[in-house]
Amino acid sequence: MQEVNLGGMMDYLTQEWNNRDLTPLVNNDIDLIVIKNAPASQLKLFNFLTSYYEIAAQDPMDKIFMDITLTGVHHELYGNTNLEWHIDKGYTQRPVNVTGLYALEIEGNVGDTLYVDNRIECPIENKKITVDMERFTSNERYGYKFRSEVERRWFRRKHRNIWHDLIQEDKKGKYVYYCEAYTELPKEEKDAIEKLLYDPSRIYYHQWEKGDFVVANNKATNHKRESTSSGKRHLWKIEGFDKQSI
To answer: Model-level pTM?
Structure first.
């Protein structure tokens, strides 16, 4: 059975693993699907996602699945910081179309992951935007800790001179390609967009349960997480490109 939220917050679709179907996401009918009781198997999650999308290697380690833990050891992503709103790999010339998070281990009050859709009436005229990589890679709220200053500088050089249209469009309509974490705009323009985009009434707070697999339209949404220092939260992250864009 599928359930659709149609409240004030962003719309999302809830499914059971046995009735899973990402077609509404592929068709841009909806921007977020929550799949309950998914198996703790990277192979099954991989095979499911590849039925709809081309799997993408993830920064910074070019891995298919990234671990997100509270400690962030062994080159995992840290899961205990209060992240800024962001678009995954939005600092690249070709950002991924979908991002999926799977709850492998959840114990205690581990904080929510927040989602908001970018489908607002943009208060700023369309323009080309770029990325503030200096700020982004120096921000302690970024989920990866660079192993050295050499690695940090290499990452900045790799993704410099990236430009995107501020206003973009898919089959569902127009959206603002913007995020708090690294979009470079004058402060007054950032403030005007964020006042609309991150209005609390528009935000979906996902309270994690073990076996949840949340798949989102990465370009037409922002997401972030709340910080936590207690309990246990181990997520897997996997990302993909639209097949027709390959």
So the answer is: 0.90
Instruction: Tell me if 82 sits within 8 A of 220, measured CB to CB.
Output: no
* Cα–Cα dist 42/51, whole Å: 14
Cα of 166 vs its chain's centroid, Å: 18
CB contact at 8 A, 67 and 77 = yes
Coil, strand, or helix at residue 70?
coil
Paired sense of beta strands 167-170 and 221-225, if any: unpaired
- The CA distance from 67 to 76, in Å, is 5
Mean pLDDT by 10 residues, the chain (246 residues): 62 97 97 98 98 90 85 60 85 94 91 94 95 75 69 80 95 96 94 96 95 98 84 92 76
Q: Is 111 exposed, middle or buried (0-12, 13-18, 19+ CB in 10 A)?
A: buried
Q: Enumerate residues 6+ apart whose C-beta is below 8 A from 186.
A: none
**In whole angstroms, how far apart are CA 144 and each of 77, 80, 203, 214?**
5, 11, 25, 21
